[in-house]
Specification:
The chain is an alpha+beta fold. Helix content is 33%, strand content 42%. The protein has 5 helices and 6 strands. It has helices at 3-16, 24-27, 44-58, 124-131, 135-140, and strands at 28-35, 41-43, 59-72, 75-86, 99-111, 114-122. Strands 2-1-6-5-4-3 form a 6-stranded mixed β-sheet. The longest helix has 15 residues, at 44-58. The radius of gyration is 15 Å and the shape is globular.
C-alpha cells in the first residue's frame, strides 16, 4: 500500500467517526492499540468503538477533520481538528452546553493496509477550560 493510499485510509476512517458509523473492522487490525492522551489505552476495535460512542454521546455536533498528514513506510503523523458542544455526560461530568475547539497531534502505525496503533496527543486542559470545567475540582468531589 502506498503512502497516498495510507493517508486516504486515515482520512476516510477519521471522517467516519463523526457519525458513529466508523469503519472499525475494515480499517483496524484485530490487535489494534490506541494510546489516548489521558494515558488510557484502547485494545481492539470494540474498545475504540466504545470510546467513540462515549464521545459522541457527550458532544453533540462532534466534528473532526484531518488536516496535514506526513509520513512514510508504516508511520504517519497527522494534525486533527475537533469541535463539539458538551450536551451529554462526559465520564460523570454533567453537560455544560458549551462548545470546544482544539487540535490534536496523532501518530498512526500501519500493518499492511490496516491501522495497528495510534498515539493521541492533545491538550485536554484547553478543552476543559473552554467547557468551564475544573478537572481538579471534579476529581476531588
Amino acid at each position: 500500500m502506498s503512502a497516498d493510499e495510507r493517508k486516504a485510509v486515515i482520512r476516510r476512517f477519521h471522517s467516519s467517526l463523526d457519525d458513529g458509523d466508523a469503519l472499525y473492522d475494515e480499517v483496524l487490525t484485530d490487535d489494534f492499540v490506541g494510546h489516548l492522551a489521558s494515558g488510557q489505552q484502547m485494545n481492539g476495535a470494540t474498545e475504540f468503538k466504545q470510546y467513540s460512542q462515549m464521545m459522541l454521546g457527550a458532544f453533540s455536533d462532534l466534528h473532526s477533520s484531518v488536516h496535514e498528514i506526513v509520513g512514510e513506510g508504516d508511520l504517519f503523523a497527522c494534525r486533527v481538528f475537533f469541535s463539539g458542544v458538551h450536551t451529554g455526560d462526559l465520564m460523570g461530568i454533567p453537560p455544560t452546553n458549551k462548545k470546544f475547539e482544539l487540535s490534536e497531534a496523532l501518530f498512526v502505525r500501519f500493518e499492511g493496509n490496516k491501522i495497528a496503533e495510534e498515539w493521541q496527543y492533545l491538550n485536554q486542559l484547553t478543552m476543559f477550560q473552554q467547557l468551564g470545567i475544573n478537572p481538579m475540582a471534579e476529581a476531588s468531589e
